[in-house]
Amino acid sequence: MARTKAGSAPDSTRVALGLRQNLAQFVLLVAVNALVGGTLGQERTVLPLLAGQVFHLDLYTSALTYILAFGLSKAAMNYFAGTLSDRYGRKPVLVTGWLVAVPVPLMLILGPSWGWIVAANVFLGISQGLTWSTAVIMKMDLTGPKQRGLAMGLNEAAGYLGVAVTALATGYIASAYGLRPGPFLLGAAYIALGLGLSVLTIRETHHHAKTEASQHVSAHKSADAGLTTGRVFTLTSFKDRSLSAASQAGLVNNLNDGLAWGLFPVLFVSSGLNLNQVGILAAVYPAVWGAGQLFTGAASDRWGRKWFVVTGMIVQAAGLAIVAAAHSFGPWLTAAVLLGIGTAMVYPALLAAIGDVAHPTWRARSVGIYRLWRDGGFAIGALLSGLLADLYGIPAAIATVAALTAASGLVVAVRMRGNDHITG
User: How would residue 153 be classed by pLDDT, with cut points 50, 70 and 90?
Assistant: First the structure.
């Protein structure tokens, strides 16, 4: 068995690509990503309320600093996760991500000032960037090109169902036992379990990517194997039509998710909803998002990525517009379902589109750069929505982001090629 910088790699002739051939490891990685999502979900219902009720932050911009810190740190780590996993292997990056998360629940429970909460979200962002990006890359490695949409759908479904279940659970825990410490003890349990599974059961997958590279037929002329990281960044961000269209759509998608995370609970509570109702609304959006991806990822393998993305962005925009206009639980529940459906259409299709176009030898870097832009949307969304909410109110902030989301879908319609999902 040959040894490489990326870990132990068996003879490539004995490495099989495909979901069925690697089912046990794939299922374990799905479970790990559900725990990654749950670690994020511990904050979705509780932290916006903690900002106002415990730390007495009045301005929305100040209250949303934790999302800004999370978005910037996660975006940066997404970029480095791809490069590090190519250099040192996927598993060491995954384990490191879990280790970084260890202090987060304690900081959220014991933090005496808002600065501690912001610092905890820096650690959480680093952890999420390393763990979630690596889980994506490892599933792409295992499945190969023909089931990439299905793989991304299962990956993102697990992660966001983890977010949803935990957002719902923490809403109930907070209503019964208070905002601290109960909700964050659940996050601590997730971190312990995720770290244990990653250390003891997950195996290295870099050699699967090398096997695919040896069999790869380029999706287009730019997809040669010898690109520098700078060239990969330029292609993914600006020059390649499909890669850059996916990157901007990912950024806008998470911009509106950052808005939903930071301002929706505040809007709902200020309109008279109780914590249980807020928890339900905070959970329905990622639950529909997560469950929907079980179908949309595989469907994009059959029908292509482009129009799933375009339609999904328009549906998200409609959901946001309803949130901005409504004043009660029923319409907001409908809007949460629409947001979930739209995001389910977009999320796995965008990731799979990156995997379709990028060559296997630089795919991990391209995924990392895409996720840099996508999760940078959290930071931009926190700043933009906070400033607009301070100046014009929460409904105006939500309406503005709805318009941006619709415009992003139109960019994809014009710019993304329609046949990049047809791979070898």
Answer: confident
